[in-house]
Amino acid sequence: MKFNWGTGIFIFLILFLLACTVFMIFAARQGINLVHKDYYEKGVNYTEQMEIDARSVEYKNAFKITNTDKQFIVDIENSLSLKIDSGNLILFRPSNSKLDILLTVEQQTQQITFKKEDLINGRYILKFYWYSEGLKYEVRQPVNVQ
User: Fold this and answer.
1) Tell me: the pLDDT tens digits for 1-39?
2) Same domain, 56 and 76
3) Residue 138 in contact with residue 53, Cβ under 8 Å?
4) Where are the alpha helices (DSSP H) in 57-134?
5) Domain CATH number, residue 45
6) Is-contact 14 6, C-beta < 8 A?
7) Is 0.70 surpassed by the pTM of this model?
8) Which residues form the domain of 22?
């Protein structure tokens, strides 16, 4: 068989279509991890989030994080813990939403402890949402678990 330019174009097209098919199968198998399940609604209501962030600035350093061998400890300043009506603490894992941990925070809680066996090493984002006198507050802080 003689190899000419028509045969070369045909082989190129076959290889190109095969590569496209492989890429589409690869892309279809990838997981979709949005930060929130209601991601688009949160985008529409971003003005409300900006107001929450502005209210919460004074509490940005109200947390002390301790990383021991067996525990991951979050200490809340006493002045803030007295103001909390209710809240949630989330250890958000950006790379895999299945590894997120959610805890409910009761009134006047000053310390929250996570067992290291429940966490894997790497980067988390500590998100603390709470309500005080009917207003929502939120603080985010990146943490590394080792």
Assistant:
1) 678 898 999 999 999 999 999 999 999 998 776 666 777
2) yes
3) yes
4) 78-81
5) 2.60.40.10
6) no
7) no
8) 1-30
